[in-house]
Specification:
The protein is 41% helix and 14% strand. It is of the alpha/beta class and 295 residues long. It has a 7-stranded mixed β-sheet, with helices on both faces. A hairpin with a 2-residue loop joins strand 3 and strand 4. 45% of the residues are buried.
């Protein structure tokens, strides 16, 4: 059943101009080891609780494999856990990321969709291995094989780690710069997944779809097209959004009657990310407005 909310004007979040300085209550964008994060779901929940968060959403890429464990851990820590997932989608040939929230993780249509995405990720990963090998770079090892076969969201970060282990590069960043970036010899594009198809699946599972980090970069024309496809919200608060971008996307959210969300996009891969968990997200009042619209 489609639970996509009907949102009267009262549900639109119009934050005060000084609200960015208020304590963060909810982080709605985090990743675990079930995709490309470093911490297990339970360890992430524990860290979130230690940082003073009261609400957390685990939004692993193309998988909800970590939601159940995170839910159990959140109950022990006294946190609210919002089911989430980050989907890779396309609009007019360009890749975007869609955050989905408050759906039924066991919904058969959603589960089928995610299985297809995970299989596509594995095929893409092995194609990148082949391209790197053709370029004279051997990266396949037992650890990489295990990750590609076992993880629900195999991707470039796993290949970057393999390049480091093999001694071809000294860091993850160098792996992307030299080999795995869009112009690199190992790059393979993701298959096109129309955003409208993803939003349909999310709505059928009872959830809402939010455009992740629109500052990476989404024009007002793209937002209009996304709204026509069924978009429910924008991620306003993100570590890549400065004050000017927040103002810009706040105005767009108001114009199109969209929900706004926020989160740290925490993976735990970089030292700088440690300062983001607990400091980027929604304050309590804005969380309550969001949840009133989707619960």
């Amino acid at each position: 059943m489609d639970r996509r909310p009907e949102r009267p004007d009262a549900h639109v979040d119009r934050p005060d101009r000084d609200s960015d300085q208020t304590p963060v209550f909810a982080d709605l964008h985090t990743h675990t080891s079930r995709s490309d994060g470093m911490l297990s779901p339970s360890d992430l929940v524990e860290k979130a609780a230690d940082r003073g968060l009261r609400v957390l959403s685990v939004t692993d890429h193309d998988t909800v494999a970590g939601v159940e464990a995170a839910t159990h851990a959140a109950a022990e820590e006294g946190l609210t856990l919002v089911p989430g997932v980050e989907l890779s989608v396309t609009l007019n040939g360009s890749e975007l990321h869609l955050l989905a929230y408050a759906f039924d993780p066991s919904h058969s249509g959603l589960q089928s969709y995610l299985r297809e995405m995970q299989a596509a990720r594995r095929r893409r990963a092995w194609k990148m291995v082949e391209r790197l090998r053709a370029h004279g770079l051997e990266v396949e090892d037992e650890q990489l094989r295990s990750v590609i076969d076992a993880t629900a969201a195999a991707g470039r970060p796993h290949l970057a780690s393999a390049l480091v282990r093999a001694g071809h590069v000294s860091s993850i960043g160098e792996a992307f710069d030299r080999y795995l970036g869009r112009d690199g010899p190992g790059f393979v594009a993701k298959p096109e997944v129309p955003v409208a198809d993803a939003l349909t699946v999310v709505h059928e599972a009872g959830g809402v779809g939010v455009l992740a980090h629109p500052g990476h970069w989404t024009s007002s024309a793209d937002v209009r097209a996304l709204c026509a496809a069924g978009l429910d919200g924008l991620e306003l608060y993100h570590r890549s959004h400065g004050a000017s971008l927040r103002r810009y996307y706040r105005r767009l959210a108001e114009s199109y009657d969209l929900l706004v969300t926020g989160g740290s996009d925490y993976h735990g891969r970089e030292e700088a990310e440690e300062t983001h968990l607990g400091t980027i997200g929604l304050n309590e009042r804005h969380w309550e407005r969001f949840w009133a619209a989707v619960a």
